[in-house]
Amino acid sequence: xxxxxxxxxxxxxxxxxxxxxxxxxxxxxxxxxxxxxxxxxxxxxxxxxxxxxxxxxxxxxxxxxxxxxxxxxxxxxxxxxxxxxxxxxxxxxxxxxxxxxxxxxxxxxxxxxxxxxxxxxxxxxxxxxxxxxxxxxxxxxxxxxxxxxxxxxxxxxxxxxxxxxxxxxxxxxxxxxxxxxxxxxxxxxxxxxxxxxxxxxxxxxxxxxxxxxxxxxxxxxxxxxxxxxxxxxxxxxxxxxxxxxxxxxxxxxxxxxxxxxxxxxxxxxxxxxxxxxxxxxxxxxxxxxxxxxxxxxxxxxxxxxxxxxxxxxxxxxxxxxxxxxxxxxxxxxxxxxxxxxxxxxxxxxxxxxxxxxxxxxxxxxxxxxxxxxxxxxxxxxxxxxxxxxxxxxxxxxxxxxxxxxxxxxxxxxxxxxxxxxxxxxxxxxxxxxxxxxxxxxxxxxxxxxxxxxxxxxxxxxxxxxxxxxxxxxxxxxxxxxxxxxxxxxxxxxxxxxxxxxxxxxxxxxxxxxxxxxxxxxxxxxxxxxxxxxxxxxxxxxxxxxxxxxxxxxxxxxxxxxxxxx
Length: 565
Hints:
Nitrilase/N-carbamoyl-D-aminoacid amidohydrolase, single chain, six-stranded mixed β-sheet, 12 strands, 2 domains, about 15% strand, 18 helices
């Protein structure tokens, strides 16, 4: 007669691995893997510009989360995870092909690795959470998974020159109610909320649609994971009230004419087209200035010759400022010795070219310099002027008098607005607003400029400072301290890609004129907290798994072995 414990062990094993029907087996092995890839790619990419279905950011991880509950093979799951992540980023970065096809696929592969690593963590963690105590194991495990997403996003922004393009939080760029949490946590907080909601919803669907759902009582179908996720989301929305948006003390700063000369990239550095380019700039500057305004804005590296280092370019720009009788805030170039700098500077009718100027701190890899050039001596940078550009190291403030009022301007050039640390440094130095000079003409008339602009929305909320943008051909406009896009330059057919100008009235909330947001003061504290979530989640799951594995072999398997002897 076999021991009772041995029979119990065999019953448990049979119960744990039920026989699956033919259709269920086919669905799981043949249909679900490609379906999970397809749904993930569609949902993830649709959350960002230019589709802008922000709600899909709450759902994009569901296909792989629900699949992970079924304990699929690592080989199939990891292959599909890599395919979904890679295809998603190829689609999101497809505009980059206008510069380089090889670079597009290489960057998409690199960026997708962080998404891929998170999905591998899902494969390992999610099935191990089922049946475990909520407070001791499941909740720490979910916090750890959400924290891991944030940590991986942060690493993507700092490793190998950094590329924090389109964090998950950027999907909510036109949802101001959710954005207000950024003033407290930075974009990491909103990314955490979105990914945790994906996790909570996955557990909820598992609870109500799983095999045991029809046999369980109503109270057994209650899913605490989902209610925690919903509570966190509602608390984030309450941030709109916390930030006192409804009590805004609107204060006009000045009016500005933004000029989009939309000089094609193929002609921008062509010496034969230089004179025509200057004529285009002057024509639209005169036209834009005639509409009124107290300040004229020019985009990145606007003139074909450097304003500092070329006397003719400086003289031409100063003459134009005198003609319109207004200061010009612009992106331009400076040459000091043999070194070129990408700069933002101001020219006034009274004093001409003004120093100090701001020099770009984050150079574009392979565009303005070659990273790891010792190992890549055969690679040339994209911008066809000078050698490697010089790097600025200071959040240099540009003082500028506009209509008898002195302003302190913080500058960001090109893709610098995707780095939250740069805007934080500028605001801590004491600026009234941020000015972004950029040139997206490299990337065609697709999603590139739209995706780029959403980062300025994040920076505005994080720093509680208005962000004013001027692009060569788009996206130009301004964003208030709460992430509301107040004005965008558009052609008569509503396109951002056009040659022209428009007048903007820049305002601010007087309550934030001399205040710093919590995030500006304390920086990336939330990312450190997410790192702790990862550690606590891992050890809680590790200890619970260790206890279970110690129980079964010791208490259940030993009688079977003894009986066989």
